[in-house]
Amino acid sequence: MAQHIAQKLRLTAALLGTVSRKDLAASFRSVNPKTAFDLGRADKWLQGRAQPREFSVYDDWSKLLKLEQPGAWIAESDLPSFTAAICARHGIDRTELERRAGAHPETTSGREDRSLGLALAGTYACYSRALSPYYRGQLIRGSLSIEAGPGAHGLTAAYREVLPTGQLLVGGPVTPAKRGLYALLKETGGDAHFFLCLFPHSRPGSVLGGYMCGGAIIGPEPQPSLTRILIIRLRDPAPQAWGGYLPPDGSIAKDLASIGLTLEQPEAVDRQLAQFLAGDSKDGGASQIPPAEFRAILDVFDRHWLSYPGQV
User: Fold this and answer.
1) Which of 17, 59, 244, 251 has the fewest CB atoms nearer than 10 Å to its CB?
2) What is the pTM of this model?
């Protein structure tokens, strides 16, 4: 799934020295006169409101940057890896490139409009109750990245879990509001959907928390599920291999320390986080409706409707 497109385009523009979207589009045409990169769509891409759907755009992008990696890598790579690759290829200091990208005239706006987006942007470690019935009562770890486009309404998020069946990646828009922070995340090329309903963001933004709603990915039957979730800001992105189910006796504090976030009084922190995540669940798992319980109600109303054929 494509991620961090707006920031990657700003870094590309800074590297090439392009002043406007028009100049950036011209650079893409220089490597492919028939490129699918055009001004109309580039405006949304740079604002984080959409991303290129044509794979050819990413292939042209790779040629433009003279990278050895294919276009698909540009789309799916995390931001630190992308930045490191283009800096190494073109011999430019990373800090300098990021400074240039931040000063790009057509991809930044006023400080007030961007303040919330910049405050939320970053990488996070996520802990929630496992939705799968096979891991009932265990915690699952996920990683979340939030990217800020111009203004507070250009926020996008990408959430990743490392599951026994493979990697799950969902993404979508983030909507800040006075009474909450919301994100609707869906899988590209799949049918997984998750909805985050979180407490409003507060400074300095070290942690977000609230509910995650979705369907169990691993299980014999689909089950609408609800679990509390903690989203903890990291200074550096977690390794790609990090994530998945935490062992039943695992410590969140020790797990955070393994990825660079060491907390004081880890035992007390573990008790506090465990209490929050268990929340309103009676058995320590996610809140779920047993399929048989719903089917029993479904049977009652289906029989009623079928007894009146004209209603079907």
Assistant:
1) 17
2) 0.62
Tokens for 12? Answer: 């590309």
In the listed set 59, 86, 108, which residue is the last one of a domain according to the structure?
108
Please report the beta strands in 103-179, taking only residues with DSSP state E, as ranges in sequence order: 122-129, 139-147, 156-163, 166-177
Q: Strand pairing of 244-245 and 139-147?
A: antiparallel
SS3 state at 298: helix
Q: Report if residue 302 sits inside a domain.
A: no
For residue 129, give the nearest of 292, 275, 290, 267 by alpha carbon. 275
Query: Which element (helix H / strand E) includes 47?
Result: helix 39-47
Domain that holds residue 134: 116-297
How far out from the chain centre does Cα 295 lie?
34
Task: Kindly state the helix (H) or strand (E) to which residue 283 belongs, with its residue range.
Answer: none
Question: How does pLDDT run across 34-77, given as a tens digit for each residue?
Answer: 999 987 788 788 877 788 989 999 999 999 999 999 999 999 99
- Whole-angstrom CA distances from 303 to 153, 289, 309, 310 are 47, 21, 11, 13
Tell me whether strands 166-177 and 207-215 are parallel, antiparallel or unpaired: unpaired
How far is 36 from 34, CA to CA, in rounded Å?
A: 7
Residue 151 lies in a domain: yes
Residue type, 244: G
Residue 293 lies in a domain: yes
Domain count along the chain: 2
Q: Which of 68, 84, 108 is the last residue of a domain?
A: 108
